[in-house]
Design goal:
The chain is α+β, with helices and mostly antiparallel strands and 212 residues long. The chain has a single domain, classed as Beta Polymerase, domain 2 (2-Layer Sandwich), CATH 3.30.460. 24% of the residues are buried.
Length: 212
């Protein structure tokens, strides 16, 4: 391992400290939002879970290689906006947009990019709504804007993504048959998401309920 690689790894570790600070701040805002929305709805929250992670150095290097980016800290900071990531899972597909709308209203978080793979899935079958938000953070000697990627998806979408990640991690070059099966599974889970909303609405209509 050469000196330049070791130096980059050290620079990345320092940047990860800033990313963890951003994650704690954004996560706290989202937890507050979840509590408020649960209180206002009285019966349920549009949140199932909120999880966060900082991308490992090895994963960052793999992404640089895949994207054809220079492997230097300036490129990572400017191009890799998902070093700090938060995943929100929700019960129903339409809850994705309820949560996204609430996030966009937060005055302390500026949405700088949105990609709706829930409505327009990737060819692989991946579905999720991505928001890139920037937080103003105050450190000991400076103020910085740190990007955080927020992924909002249903539990079914999260199941697909977890399976795909686990199996692709073991096989980085899956066969066309495996790719096709994953795409088929994504369609089946998407249909299940639609049926779940229909069942929810059917129950609400039967019970004369305003919120389920």
């Amino acid at each position: 391992m050469d000196v330049a690689h070791l130096e980059l790894e050290e620079q990345y570790k320092k940047y990860c400290v800033e990313c963890r600070c951003a994650l704690r701040t954004v996560s706290a805002r989202l937890e507050n939002l979840r509590d408020e929305m649960e209180y206002l709805s009285e019966k349920r929250s549009p949140f199932v879970s909120i999880d966060s992670r900082v991308k490992s150095f090895e994963s960052a290097m793999k992404k640089c290689t895949k994207k054809g980016w220079n492997t230097d800290i300036d490129t990572i900071k400017s191009e890799m906006r998902d070093v700090a990531g938060i995943r929100i899972t929700v019960p129903y597909k339409d809850d994705i947009y309820v949560v996204a709308k609430a996030v966009k209203r937060q005055p302390s978080m500026t949405v700088i990019e949105e990609r709706d793979y829930a409505a327009n899935p990737k060819p692989s079958g991946y579905r999720s709504l991505h928001l890139i938000v920037e937080m103003d953070l105050y450190f000991m000697e400076t103020q910085k804007k740190i990007p955080v990627e927020i992924q909002i998806r249903t539990e079914a979408m999260d199941l697909w993504a977890s399976l795909e990640h686990r199996l692709r991690y073991k096989n980085t070059d899956p066969s066309p048959e495996a790719v096709e099966k994953f795409a088929e599974l994504a369609k089946e889970l998407a249909a299940a998401d639609e049926q779940a909303m229909e069942l929810r609405d059917f129950r609400k209509a039967e019970e004369g309920d305003d919120d389920a």
